[in-house]
Amino acid sequence: MAQPIFQVDAFASGAFTGNPAAVCVLERARDVGWMQAVAAEMNLSETAFVRADGDHWSLRWFTPATEVKLCGHATLASAHILYETGLLVRTETARFQTLSGLLTARCEGDGITLDFPAQPPHRTAPPRGLVDALGADPQWVGSNGSDLFVELDSAEVVRSLKPDIHALRAVDVRGVIVTAVSDDPRCDFVSRFFAPRVGVDEDPVTGSAHTALGPFWAHRLERTSLTGYQASPRGGFVGVRMRGDRVDLRGTALTVLRGELTDSAS
Predict the structure, then answer these.
(1) Considering the entire predicted model, what is its pTM?
(2) Which uninterrupted H or E stretch holds 35?
(3) How does DSSP classify residue 83?
C-alpha cells in the first residue's frame, strides 16, 4: 500500500519560510534502512517517522545521512500533521516517545508549543580548527554535549558569517550554533546552525539548538520568556520559555505538500 508523506514548513511565517521537514505517519514499524533511504530521497534537513504506539506516538528523525537523537522542527511538523489530519484533536496533547525520552506538543492559539529538555551549554576551549573554519573570533565557546555553542560580537557578524563548510566538517561535533544578542526589536537574540557532519551544511531553523540558546540567553538577559530568530536565508522565529530544566519552544507550521510514496518505494 502506498505510504502518505507530507512536507511541512515549521517555525514558519508563511509558505517557503522556516524549516521544511518531511513527515511519514506509519501504520507499521519500518526498518532503519528504509527510513534512512526515504530521508535521503527527500533530501531535507530532517524527515520524521511517526507511528501510534499505545497511548503515545513513536517518533524518529533522520537527516539525509544519519538518525539524530533530537529535532525540534520535525517534531513541530509531526504534531502539526497529527492535528491537521484529525489523528489528534486540538485539545489533546501529542506525546512522543523518542531517543531523547518523552516529548510533548500542544496547541496554543495559532501555534504549537513543544516541551523539550533544556540543554544549557558549559564553557569549553574552542576545539582545533573551529575558529579558522568559522572565520570569526568567538566571544564565548561552550558545549551542551551535542553541539558547540559560539557567541559572536554582534548580530551583524552572525548574519554575514560565511564559514568554510569543508573545514567545519572536520570539527568533531554534531553541529555548531553561532549566536549574538539581537539588534532587531522583534527578537532577543539571533542564531545560525551548521551541521555538515550529519549532512546539513546550514539548517534553516533549528528547534533543538534553542534548547541551548534558551537557557544561555535567559541567564544573560535575566528573562525566562524570549524570542529567537534564526538568521538563515529562509529564517524563522522561535518562542522560548524556560521552566527549570525544561524549555517550551513555540512556533507555527503549515503543510506545503501532500503526496505518497508509490508501492514500489513503500
Answers:
(1) 0.95
(2) helix 32-42
(3) H
Tell me which of 27, 46, 84, 222 is the catalytic residue: 46
pLDDT tens, residue by residue, 167-221:
999 999 999 999 999 999 999 999 999 999 999 999 999 999 999 999 999 999 9
Round to whole Å and give the CA distance between 78 and 68: 15
- Predicted confidence (pLDDT) per residue in 6-37, tens digit: 999 999 999 999 999 999 999 999 999 999 99
Q: Which amino acid is at 191?
A: S
For residues 158 and 179, the answer to whether their CB atoms sit within 8 Å is yes
Max CA separation in the chain (angstroms): 55
Answer whether 62's CB lies under 8 Å from 46's CB.
Answer: yes
C-alpha cell at 210: 534553542
Q: Are 75 and 103 in contact (CB under 8 A)?
A: yes
Distances in Å between the alpha carbon of 161 and those of 19, 126, 194, 263? 19, 17, 11, 44
Instruction: Answer yes or no: 46 catalytic.
Output: yes
Sketch out the chain's domains with CATH numbers: 3-104+252-261 (3.10.310.10), 122-244 (3.10.310.10)
Residues 95-139 pLDDT 10s: 999 999 999 999 999 999 999 999 999 999 999 999 999 999 999
Distance from C-alpha of 98 to C-alpha of 95, rounded to nearest angstrom: 10
Which position has the grid cell 546550514?
A: 202
d(CA 189, CA 202): 18
